[in-house]
Amino acid sequence: MEITLNKPLDMHLHLRDNEMLKTVAPLSAKTFSSAIIMPNLVPPVTTIEDVISYKERIIEACGDESFDPLMTLFFKDDYSYDFLNSAKEHIFAIKLYPAGITTNSEGGVSTIDSETLKKTLEAMSELGIPLCVHGESDGFVMDREKEFVPIYEELATKFPNLKIIMEHITTKDSVEALERHSNLYATITLHHLLITLDDVAGGMLHPHLFCKPIAKRPEDRAALLKVALDAHPKVMFGSDSAPHPKHAKESCGCAAGVFTAPIALQVLVELFEKHDKLENLQKFISDNAQKIYNFKPCEKVVTLEKKSFIVPTSYNDVIPMYAGKEISWSIKSIS
Ligand code: NCD
Ligand code: ZN
Fold first, then answer.
1. Measured distance CA(76)–CA(318) in Å, rounded
2. Mutate to test the pocket of ligand 1, among 105, 145, 240 (most ligand atoms within 8 A of CB)
3. Which ligand 1 atom is the nearest neighbour of the CA of 102?
4. Looking at the 3D structure of the chain, how many domains does it have?
5. Active site residues
């Protein structure tokens, strides 16, 4: 049994820099046509020069693979219209982080409301630059995303021409909010379709499944699964593959992030097959994102076959999700 996917896209990806970039970039570049690259480096990507040079380093790290990195800037509320106008041709979107809410987000925004962000968001609306958001409050960890929904709604209402992407949604509340605003969209990760908090902390603590936002309740996962498996037109795949070295994960003070890049396509096929929804995977993995962002990715055709594959236990010093486990689909060919 085989399935062919056209131009697979990862609309939320962390590639890091230096040695880590060299380890992980080729893995995404192999099976994805294109990906949105998150700007939370240390220091974050905040200038046009940063964007251009980071993009060059990514392309170099990808070697011979054909892969188009879609670059982002790290949101600052003092970006002027003129700056954004010059940045526009180099970026695909801007990523907003609440200050300190996740890995390398210390330089994020501390007050998120339509008044404080008005100048930048009006300029982005006018220039047609999409806003990607890490939507979590600083409240109780299980309620952070739910508490952020009213902020999404305020921004969506006050800036009706701004395309807002709720990144890596994990709750039923976020799925419901999508229906209320025509300019709200969402990415969904692989791991949030598979796990709940029980898999992270219900038994022995599982550091390689610890991420932000934390995996939620079974009913939340069910709501995410429903829209992903149906390829709801407002949702798209964004892995949020977020590599950290082994010592930063298997330590006292575990870094947040699940590394899924090398297994994402294979496990998505397994999941969609299990639910008898394989016919919707092409939309979830590419077509919806092309429509939402209105762009044409570069050509890449990936054929997968139903043949078991043992996930490597590590890629250099990064441990992937399902390390050492058997999955039922493999990459057969890529052209
Ligand atoms: C991401 C990272 O490590 O950069 N971590 C994570 O848990 N998802 C940041 C993010 O997307 O929140
Ligand atoms: Zn992320």
1. 31
2. 240
3. 12
4. 1
5. 240
Domain membership of residue 273 (yes or no) is no
Q: Model confidence over 242-293: pLDDT tens digits?
A: 999 999 999 999 999 999 999 999 999 999 999 999 999 999 999 999 999 9
The pTM for the full model equals 0.98
Residues with CB under 6 A from ligand 1: 14, 40, 102-104, 134, 211-212, 240, 242, 256-257
The number of the ligand 1 atom at minimal distance from the alpha carbon of 243 is 3
DSSP letter string, 115-184: TTTHHHHHHHHHHT--EEE----SS-GGGHHHHHHHHHHHHHHH-TTS-EEETT--SHHHHHHHHH-TTE
Distance of CA 242 from the midpoint of ligand 1 (Å): 6
310 DSSP β-pair partners: 326
Q: Return the ligand 1 atom nearest residue 256 CA.
A: 7
Single-letter amino acid, residue 220 = D
Per-residue pLDDT reduced to its tens digit, 49-93: 999 999 999 999 999 999 999 999 999 999 999 999 999 999 999
- Taking only the tens place, the pLDDT of each residue in 196-245 is 999 999 999 999 999 999 999 999 999 999 999 999 999 999 999 999 99
Span 30-40, average pLDDT: 98
The ligand that comes nearest to the alpha carbon of residue 208 is 1
- 241 C-alpha to center of ligand 2: Å? 7
From ligand 1's centre to the CA of 1, what distance in Å? Answer: 35
Quote the tokens at residue 209.
């499944």
Task: Give me ligand 2 centre to Cα 14, in Å.
Answer: 6
The CATH number of the domain where 44 resides is what? 3.20.20.140
> Containing domain of residue 115, as a range?
10-256
Asked if the structure places residue 135 within a domain, the reply is yes
Q: Whose CA is nearest to atom 4 of ligand 1?
A: 103
* Residue 335, SS3 per DSSP: coil
- Whether 244 maps to a domain, the answer reads yes
Tens-place pLDDT, residues 319-328: 999 999 999 9
Residue 14 lies in a domain: yes
Q: Which DSSP helix (H) or strand (E) runs through 10?
A: strand 9-13
